[in-house]
Amino acid sequence: MLDELDDLLGKARLWLAQGHGVALATVMQTWGSAPRRRGSHAVIRDDGLFEGSVSGGCVEGDVLVAAQALLAAGGGFDRRDYGVADDDAWSFGLACGGSIAILIQTIDEAHVPPALLDRIAAERRAGRPIAVASDLATGAAAEAARDAGEEEGRFVNLYPPPLRMMIVGAVHVSQHLVPLARQLGYRVQLVDPRDSFAAADRFAGIAVDTRWPDEAMAEWRPDGGTAVVTLTHDPKIDDPALVAALGSDAFYIAALGSRRTHAKRIERLSAAGCTAEAIARIDGPAGLPIAAATPAEIALSILAGATAALRGA
């Protein structure tokens, strides 16, 4: 499964290979209640066909026209600012009250080199973030250091690895967590070494990995775009997974169970050599406290917890 960025990069490369001119639009800055996050993209073809979104529909029409004009002129870049205080607010429909700045660059050697798109895709596939800096005086984009900060006259966009979620335990909650996570763009790995659980025909479209979680994780190598969730309540299965996850860069680690169960889990992980600082990374009981009662509600609370961790909320 491709995430949104993978899909957009692939579409841009396909259109270029078909001989079309293509432009990349990027949300460069937002203020207030902007509909799309900073760094969001749309790709626009010379005939007006586009994929992705930079405004949730508010200003796309103007961005498409501007991008087509750049392509018709043989290439270039443009910055366009939209907000409710602008004279064009009614035309562009920014009724949400926010303001956004969009950078439009044609995909060519002088602005966004096609090889840079390949580089972004390759680094993300390898589980590594990559930063790209755009010179706002020339519109030229190039790879930058990952810790590159903002500077006057340039825009830096950091592309994290694709979202992944390892779910340990082929249980009822997983039946809801798998499809919900996929809808949010996660690539899901479901692991359960128990034959009776793994053999159950309850997970359409996903094969249950029957290895022990620590074995599967050694191959999967959780990175900064990975969430790890344990659901079995069985220390023999959950604990090795948590120990392995705590040694990784996973952005969210969660374990299902009551507060009493989690207290016992902390004792075991401490005895296994995990530090208090590392154990504090575990969200236990898993998920945001929304009084979840059913398996579907528990899955929702876990995904809400993962989303909060991802967005730094």
Automatic annotation (TrEMBL):
Q: Which residues form the XdhC Rossmann domain?
A: 165-304
Boundaries of every XdhC- CoxI domain copy: 15-80
Q: Which Pfam families match?
A: XdhC_C, XdhC_CoxI
State the source organism's domain of life: Bacteria
Q: Which InterPro entries match?
A: MoCofactor_Util/Proc, XdhC_CoxI, XdhC_Rossmann_dom
Q: What is this protein called?
A: XdhC family protein
Provide the species name.
Rhizorhabdus wittichii (strain DSM 6014 / CCUG 31198 / JCM 15750 / NBRC 105917 / EY 4224 / RW1)
